[in-house]
Amino acid sequence: MPRTGTKPVETYSDDVFVLVVLLAVAAVAALIVGLVGLTGRLRPNRWVGVRNDQTLRDDALWRTANRVAGPAVIAAGAIFAGGACATGGSGSPWGYAYFAGTLVAGVFLAGFGALQGARAASIQAHLQTGLVASTPGVHTAGDTTAAGTADGSAATEDGTAAEACGVSGGCGSCALAGLCTSHSH
Description:
Blueprint: H1 13-38, H2 53-57, H3 59-90, H4 94-129, H5 161-164
Helix pairs in contact: 1-3, 1-4, 3-4
């Protein structure tokens, strides 16, 4: 005798499967791009990486930007992978919410990494062209005047501003270690 008053269970498997596949593909792509960028082996191209006028013009800036963006892109890939598991395992309308939340979080994180990469490339470009000396509050290794201090006075007794930073061989003002260059003023 058939049951009366029972509702058929709705399944979301077909729709959710497509979302899981999309997140899985995004996860694999982000993980690969992030790892290749982090290792400095991502070559300038039309499709992926931190792409702006500076990075496309100079290979060193391209590598710097993508090395800085790499960890955030890898983390976005991990978020996409986790979201694919959560979306696929939900079996309910919550799968759609997991998908949307994962998509927003992953894209935001990857975008943040790209922004930081572009900023690092901009800093490196300024260091390469010597524009740092005219930037208030920033000085380079080998400064004999405390460039960037409000009164222009020497930062240490011997007048070496870079030593006042507490980092020998560099000023410590850089966002990235190893980008400081020696300039005599």
